[in-house]
Amino acid sequence: MAKKRKLYIKFDENKRMDYLTGFHKRKLLRREKAKQENEKLLKEEIKKVKNAYREDLLQKIRSTKLPNFLADDLHVVTSVTTQDAGDHTVSVEEIDLAQSHYFMGDNCEVVQ
């Protein structure tokens, strides 16, 4: 019969600590990854809300019809003054909005 060899168990404290603290490290990594994912989702949601708001605002602007305030359309030009400013010629047309349907009222101080 052959002689049996003795079994020696070597206990390494550093490997034990790595094994036991590995659970905590992986848990912290999972938490950090989840936190980053939540921040990413929050940023995407904020971006979606901003884009929806922007599109709604642009749609409102596109649907708003503003009156055309060109003097040719109003037919209420009272006087035209032309001035030469060097390289440019400036034409100033005074219009009377009170005679048009764009009249909003007098621009004067309120007396009480």
Chain-wise SSE layout:
Blueprint: H1 13-63, H2 71-74, E1 77-85, E2 88-95
Antiparallel strand pairs: 1-2
Structure report:
This protein has 112 residues and is α+β, with helices and mostly antiparallel strands. It folds into two domains: 54 residues; 37 residues, no CATH class. It is built from two helices and two strands. It has a two-stranded antiparallel ribbon. Strand 1 and strand 2 form a beta hairpin. It starts with 12 loop residues before the first helix and ends in a 17-residue tail after the last strand.
Number of helices: 2
For the largest beta sheet, what order do the strands appear in spatially?
A: 1-2
Structural class: alpha+beta
Give helix and strand order, one letter per element, not per position.
HHEE
Percent range of helical residues: 40-55%
Portion of residues in beta strands equals 15-25%
Query: How much is the average pLDDT?
Result: 83
Characteristic terms for this protein:
single chain, 112 residues, alpha+beta, 2 domains, 2 strands, rod-shaped, nucleus
Structure, briefly:
The chain folds into two domains: 12-65; 67-103, no CATH class.
